[in-house]
Write a structure and sequence with these properties.
This protein is of the alpha/beta class. The protein is 39% helix and 16% strand. Bound molecules: (3S,4R)-3-hydroxy-2-oxopiperidin-4-yl beta-D-xylopyranoside. The site of (3S,4R)-3-hydroxy-2-oxopiperidin-4-yl beta-D-xylopyranoside has 8 residues, from loops.
Length: 314
């Protein structure tokens, strides 16, 4: 059975990351995508530091994004783009910032110019090339620290200070069309702890950050919860619904932006049932909160999940 018509009937944006990996017939992959999802998120291809995307200051290669967003555009799927501002550097893997930026020794003012330029070019390019297609922008990703209540040190924070977040939203809003929603995205449920790892201090911090944005009239429309869960580390439906409610009570929309439920080998029938239950719970949380308008998976095939990649948490 196909999910897309059910989602449309419920007014729920139901999506997935799009990232074609070998081992699946391309046409089948695309058909499966269109049958089941109403929105698409390019899993990669748009972030600043991805292999060669920005070889030099001011230069951006849009070809990967054009291909994926073009596919969505041709098929009338709305798109959510990840991420305009991210900083992650994973040892042994491409950083999510370009080499020239990391090594340029730039001061705060120059960094702000480069960041504004990347945001402006990216948002303008995809908006003009594919009108009415990108409906959500993940403006700032993973600003919070996992291990304490605060921001994780990063290039932007260290040099510009916390105001880089305000600026990123303002710069995005200047060029994004009114219909596009801007959101703050982070990961709050994680890990394989048997009792479920719900990073409460991190949620509290994000709540403070986002309420600050709202109070200062910074243009933000929503809060994105990544929701990378595991079958053994599940905080439970009530806890997650209550977390979302804090943010929707601020007047924001909430988006489940990167939902996946990892199996922990050896895989048992019980695990598969728990996995299905967790997906069901998350969809129900969205259906029960009218301001939680999106459930978007981080891939739809366990065999081709990013968990197989070298950037996944171990
Ligand atoms: C992962 C992806 O699956 C990769 O393909 C990508 O290029 C980078 O890493 N939190 C996020 C996502 O916000 O962008 C990450 O995606 C997974 C964790």
């Amino acid at each position: 059975s196909e999910i897309a018509p059910l989602a449309r009937a419920k007014n729920l944006h139901f999506g997935s990351a799009f990232y074609y990996r070998d081992g699946w017939d391309r046409d089948e992959y695309e058909k499966h995508f269109l049958d089941n999802f109403t929105i698409l998120t390019p899993e990669g291809g748009i972030m600043w530091g991805e292999g060669g995307l920005s070889p030099a200051p001011g230069e951006i290669n849009f070809s990967a994004g054009n291909e994926i967003i073009g596919f969505a555009h041709e098929n009338d799927l709305a798109v959510k783009v990840h991420h305009l501002v991210w900083h992650r550097y994973v040892e042994g893997h491409d950083p999510f910032l370009p080499q020239w930026l990391l090594e340029g020794g730039y001061g705060s003012a120059e960094l702000q110019e480069h960041l504004k330029d990347f945001i402006t070019q990216t948002v303008t390019h995809y908006t003009e090339k594919f009108p009415h297609t990108v409906q959500w922008w993940s403006v700032v990703n993973e600003a919070g620290a996992n291990n304490f209540s605060g921001f994780e040190p990063n290039l932007w924070l260290d040099s510009i200070g916390e105001s880089y977040i305000d600026s990123a939203f303002v710069w995005t809003r200047e060029v994004a069309p009114d219909e596009a929603k801007l959101f703050y995205n982070d990961c709050f449920y994680h890990g394989t702890a048997a009792d479920g790892q719900r990073m409460e201090h991190k949620i509290d911090h994000a709540y403070d950050v986002v309420s600050g944005l709202v109070e200062r009239d910074i243009p933000i429309d929503g809060m994105g919860f990544q929701s990378h869960l595991t079958v053994v580390g599940y905080p439970g439906k009530e806890a997650i619904a209550a977390d979302f409610k804090r943010f929707t009570d601020l007047g924001l929309e909430v988006y489940i932006t990167e939902l996946d439920v990892a199996l922990i080998p050896p895989v048992t029938q019980k695990q598969l049932e728990q996995q299905a239950k967790i997906y069901r719970d998350l969809v129900n949380i969205a259906l029960e909160n009218e301001k939680c308008t999106m459930v978007s998976l981080w891939g739809f095939n366990d065999a081709q999940s990013w968990y197989e990649s070298d950037v996944a948490p171990s």
